[in-house]
Design brief:
Elements lengths: L7 E4 L5 H13 L4 E4 L5 E3 L2 H13 L16 H10 L7 H8 L1 E3 L20 H4 L6 E3 H7 L5 H35 L5 H9 L3
Helix pairs in contact: 1-3
């Protein structure tokens, strides 16, 4: 991600929450627009029960006088990632606020981004950063346990998207095979033409 692109779309599946948050925060502060999809498949190190206890301890932290003043405990995976990123950004300054505006986070892969090439961040991938055999938890499961209501909805939409994507890929491979076959069939008849074009330096 050293060079700027219009928008970088990251597939959150299999990334560690904190590591991904730090990289996204840095890129956003540098002016890069970042979109993270499939936030529900992000991972956190440590077993599920321990992470659930941590979240419940966080739920206890509230304003005793008037809880509506905050802190606000977001349950959705995308908001949990947002909170992690916000903690790494000077969000009370204009620069920090502008950086947060450059970030978009989603559960699942909503329509504009289901046709876009999605990246991974090797520095934040669980398989590369976590020692084999260590326990880890999926954010979606924690969210579901503490009150996120849309796990089933997102799962259903993801199934639909994957079926649609598989059908598109099948059509694409069939079309490429057809094109290659046509090229090989006509190779002999256009051999002389290709040779004369090559002689001209094209």
């Amino acid at each position: 991600m050293s060079t700027f692109e219009k928008v970088v779309v990251i597939d959150g599946k299999g990334h560690l929450l904190g590591r991904l948050a730090s990289i996204v925060a840095k890129q956003a502060l540098n002016g890069q627009k970042v979109v993270v999809v499939r936030c529900e498949a992000l991972n956190v190190s440590g077993e599920f029960f321990r992470n659930k206890l941590k979240y419940h301890a966080y739920l206890n932290k509230r304003c005793l006088v008037n809880p509506t003043r905050g802190p606000f405990h977001f349950r959705a995976p995308s908001r949990i990632l947002y909170k992690a990123i916000r903690g790494m950004v000077p969000h009370k300054t204009a620069r920090g606020a502008a950086a947060l505006d450059r970030i978009k986070l989603f559960e699942g892969v909503p329509p504009p981004y289901d046709r876009v090439k999605r990246m991974v961040v090797p520095d934040a991938l669980r398989v590369l950063r976590l020692k084999p055999g260590r326990k880890y938890t999926t954010i979606g499961r924690i969210s579901h346990e503490v009150g996120w209501k849309y796990q089933d909805v997102v799962a259903k939409l993801e199934e639909k998207r994957k079926a649609k994507s598989a059908a598109f890929y099948q059509r694409k491979t069939a079309l490429i095979a057809l094109k290659n076959k046509a090229v090989s069939n006509k190779a002999a008849s256009v051999k002389d033409l290709n040779a004369s074009i090559a002689a001209l330096g094209h």
